[in-house]
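Q&A log
Question type: sequence-to-structure
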Amino acid sequence: MQVNFSYLSEQFRDIDQYLDDIRNLVSTGDFTLGKAVSEFESLFAKACRMPFAIGVGSGTDALILSLKALGIGPGDEVITATNTFIAMTGAKPVLVDNEDGYVIDHAQIEAAITSQTKAIIPVHYTGNVPDMPYIMDVANKYGLKVVEDACQGIGASLDGNPVGSWGESAAFSLHPLKNLNVWGDGGMIVTRSQEFAERIRLIRNHGLVGRDECVVFGYNSRLDSLQAVIGNRLIPDLGWITAKRIENAERYDSAFHELRDFVRTPHRRTGVRHVYHLYIVRVQRRDELLRHLVAHGIDAKVHYPIPLHLQEASRYLGYKLGDFPLSEADAEQIMTLPAHQHLTNEQIDFVIDQVKEFYN
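Response status: OK
Response body:
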């Protein structure tokens, strides 16, 4: 049996409906910031229960443009987690260790604040949600902005409050392997502030008002109309996608309980709706298990084997091995198992059986 990590061939098996939408777009020539983008922004905002959503070129751009709109750049510091992917804005990242649920350890944030700190970027890593009420209290205490990195968190919530509804803005990714995806790079920014939304719309499009007047230096980071067409076709499935991923994760959790000496599921905070962009567990003999699963047709992964503070690009920050012990331990133990919405129960059971066979 083959159990793939990617589900794109299954998701787009009925490709004709997508191609029909693209043909209609081509016939209009409405390729840049067109009607399809506005429609997708409206649907996305509604899905996040937020008043404004602005389409941009990628999830990384969504973070960069959010900080740019807040006036944060060189000379400023931004606090974020060390077990995340790579993006830079010109501000200095100040890293904090993760906690047992793979999200930023909120209790360590206050100690990382300096006179140069301007913002906190909590990452909704794997589709989990950090202790946002605590983080917002710290931010308000010190007058800091909060930009949520929700690139993996579409549909997640804490105590009924969706990700994206806590901070000044939130960044979402539409990468092909995200829970809500398009056919290439794409991103979205959500916010409650009309003024902030208008500023993002300016700086994503060179700072132009009309065609010829530039009021602020910006970027070329527009969500393509073609990608918005795909997003419009897929976004009605978001509820089903999320529910199926949660169901698959619960199936794994239940099965791995009897293997808890070898496979440890992460702590999940009460009140969190975890949407499982990634289903990650801590395992014994990780590299051996990974080879075993791959040899049996299971496309298991490691996200990520090198923490951000130990990357070559981060050397100038002055961090060293031992500074973030939980993140470093996770880099040696974590494994991602396929848990996407197109897996069958038989495929999930096959993964479980192969994990059990390895440890038995």
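Response note: The mean pLDDT is 96.
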